[in-house]
């Protein structure tokens, strides 16, 4: 699959994988800092069924990892540093286990290699309502989505998927049909034999419950050369909620 990416800067490659229902451009501000201050060429990659990348019926982490390898091969990258948030974290974990020589250092943001039960149903219902409705402005879309999601910051994040198809019609960049059909794939655990020996940093938001103390042994089993770094006053979107601290922690690790 030919993935879309926004490439920022020149230098050694840093590939960033967004979370479920996100897109690479969610990371644009941080990407500019990695490029300007650390001399990275940052690749903000849209995973399949997200952003500007192709839509398809098939969706699982083996495919997402294979997509990433194809992207690196196409762009003549023999190895790179990787950052993955949430679903993107599962992608880079799987990728590192399948293609370890392609990975220099890896950062996994607020996700563990364990199983997570489906928990995005209300969000998907709200986005489906938006996708099926006719409205004249983004405010109308936000008003509709607010019936399903009360937290404004989450609505703003989701509505970044909204784009104008023509003067009278909006559309969503995510492939809702495929994502709903494959929702059980999103939370799947890494297989027991999927491991990576390279340097790995797990970052968790202290206000988030995606990574708990009980996950430490499981993380070490899959990633023996890893450490876990909590960031205070941050939830699941730790890179957005505490951007400066996130940059400081990640840049120190990557350096």
From TrEMBL:
Cross-referenced InterPro entries: AB_hydrolase_1, AB_hydrolase_fold
Single annotated GO MF: hydrolase activity
Name of this chain's protein: Pimeloyl-ACP methyl ester carboxylesterase
Lineage, opening ranks: Bacteria, Pseudomonadati, Bacteroidota, Flavobacteriia, Flavobacteriales
Assigned keywords, A-Z: Hydrolase
Domain AB hydrolase-1: 12-241
One Pfam family here: Abhydrolase_1
């Amino acid at each position: 699959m030919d993935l879309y990416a926004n490439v920022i800067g020149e230098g050694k490659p840093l590939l960033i994988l967004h979370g479920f229902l996100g897109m690479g451009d969610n990371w644009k501000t941080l990407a500019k800092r990695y490029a300007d201050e650390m001399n990275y060429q940052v690749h903000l990659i849209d995973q399949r069924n997200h952003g500007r990348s192709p839509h398809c019926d098939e969706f699982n982490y083996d495919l997402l990892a294979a997509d990433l390898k194809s992207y690196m091969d196409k762009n003549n990258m023999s190895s790179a540093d990787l950052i993955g948030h949430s679903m993107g974290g599962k992608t880079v974990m799987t990728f590192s286990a399948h293609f370890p020589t392609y990975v220099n250092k890896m950062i996994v943001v607020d996700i563990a290699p364990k199983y997570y039960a489906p928990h995005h149903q209300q969000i998907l219902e709200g986005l489906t309502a938006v996708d099926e409705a006719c409205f004249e402005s983004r405010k109308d879309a936000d008003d509709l989505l607010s019936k399903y999601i009360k937290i404004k910051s989450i609505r703003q994040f989701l509505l970044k998927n909204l784009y104008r198809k023509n003067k009278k019609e909006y559309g969503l960049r995510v492939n809702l049909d495929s994502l709903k059909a494959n929702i059980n794939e999103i939370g799947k655990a890494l297989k027991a034999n999927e491991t990576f020996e390279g340097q790995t940093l797990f970052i968790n938001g202290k206000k988030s419950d995606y990574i708990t103390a009980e996950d430490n042994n499981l993380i070490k089993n899959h990633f023996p050369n890893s450490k876990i770094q909590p960031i205070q006053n941050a939830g699941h979107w730790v890179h957005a909620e505490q951007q400066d601290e996130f940059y400081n922690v990640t840049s120190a690790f990557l350096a």
